[in-house]
Design goal:
Helices cover 60% and strands 14% of the residues. It is an alpha+beta fold. Helix 2 packs across helix 4. The protein is elongated, with a radius of gyration of 33 Å. The two termini are 35 Å apart.
């Protein structure tokens, strides 16, 4: 019997390579310049008008005009970020945009006039006086320049709203992860203390040793702080301390075997991802039966992913696919944390048949810390 749970929600928090914003905008304005050159050239040919300069010269200056807007795009983006067009910010934003409708076309005309004076007009001849050229361009192209400004501002608003949405999604995911971990830590602590309390009257010396081990274990858990990801080696070291406590309590009833591939010890894994799986194996696989039991913890590469496995020799799943003694917070929180951290990039599998134990497989991206 096998049950598969894949990530269905959440965002993957791990960083991904992205194309720089300046390169995206440069490409967009390059395409815009080529399109403008093609349209104007086609119109001139269709109208039968003589072309005053070559196609390549025309393309060169069409691109130059668009690259001036490319240079001004970060300023428009800054304006949008400082003065977003939102209902409560209209009184403050409106004057800034009214001024910008004049400023950006004027800045574009000044920069373009400077280029023309430095490189020469594409049609040749003596250039007009600087101020006259700026004024002529402003008057002749002002409606088009105003539309271009509004188009850039609209695109910048879309990017800004998307950034805020992603930021809120990320903060929400982080808050949910902290909440899940906050539930897991006291759950782990209370269960461990309950286990230690069984030794107090039966074997005081063992209880004292176990309390010392528990102190070391809790110190390690607290040192992790809010860290969501640790190395697999750190996770295994933490788990060994946890297992030692239970082996002291259960004596010869519990045997635990670790099979960790050496190539995986540096892999990045969610902190305390294995402890609730082992705790689940102890509570539902070893405790309910009178005979001794075995738990195996393994980690291996699997088709480019990291496979973490915890299996036990207990009664396994019932015919209905449920643990024979119920399902605690550990498995539920583990699945929820994996969904938040990796989204659809993870798999969570339960494999079992009645009386043959339970195997939990976790597949996550293989990334080194």
């Amino acid at each position: 019997m096998s049950f598969l749970v894949e990530g269905r929600s959440g965002k993957q928090i791990s960083s991904a390579s992205r194309v720089p914003a300046w390169l995206l905008t440069f490409g967009a304005w390059t395409l815009a310049g080529m399109l403008v050159a093609l349209i104007t050239y086609s119109q001139s040919v269709a109208a039968g008008r003589p072309f005053p300069f070559s196609w390549w010269e025309h393309l060169r200056w069409a691109l130059a005009e668009c690259y001036v807007w490319w240079a001004l795009t970060p300023l428009v983006a800054l304006l949008v970020r400082r003065f977003p067009l939102e209902p409560r910010r209209w009184p403050r934003a409106l004057p800034a945009y009214v001024a910008s409708i004049i400023f950006f076309p004027f800045a574009w005309a000044v920069i373009l006039a400077s280029l023309y004076r430095a490189l020469g007009r594409p049609s040749g001849g003596d250039p007009e006086p600087f101020g006259e050229f700026v004024w002529v361009v402003m008057i002749a192209r002002f409606p088009a320049l105003m539309l271009v400004f509004f188009a850039i501002a609209a695109a910048a608003h879309a990017v800004e709203y998307r950034r805020r949405y992603q930021e809120r999604e990320f903060l929400l995911a982080q808050a949910q992860l902290r909440s899940l971990k906050a539930q897991l830590n006291p759950h782990f602590l209370f269960n461990t203390l309950n286990a230690v309390s069984e030794l107090v009257y039966r074997d005081p010396e063992a209880a004292e040793r176990t309390i010392i081990n528990l102190s070391d274990l809790l110190r390690t858990a607290l040192s992790m702080g809010d860290a969501q990801l640790v190395s697999l080696q750190d996770e295994i070291d933490f788990l060994r301390r946890y297992v030692d406590i239970h082996r002291t309590i259960m004596r010869d009833r519990l045997a635990v075997e670790f099979n960790i591939e050496s190539e995986t010890v540096g892999a990045s894994v969610p902190s305390m991802i294995l402890q609730p799986l082992v705790e689940n194996a102890i509570r539902h696989g070893i405790d309910p039966v009178s005979r001794s039991g075995r738990i195996e913890v393994s980690a291996a590469r699997d088709n480019g992913a990291l496979r973490l496995t915890v299996s036990d020799s207990g009664p396994g799943l019932s015919e209905q696919g449920q643990l024979t003694s119920g399902k605690g917070i550990g498995l539920a929180n583990t699945q929820a944390r994996l969904a938040q951290l990796y989204g659809k990039s993870h798999r969570f599998e339960l494999k079992s048949s009645p009386g043959r134990g339970l195997t939990v497989n976790v597949f996550i991206p293989l990334e080194n810390r």
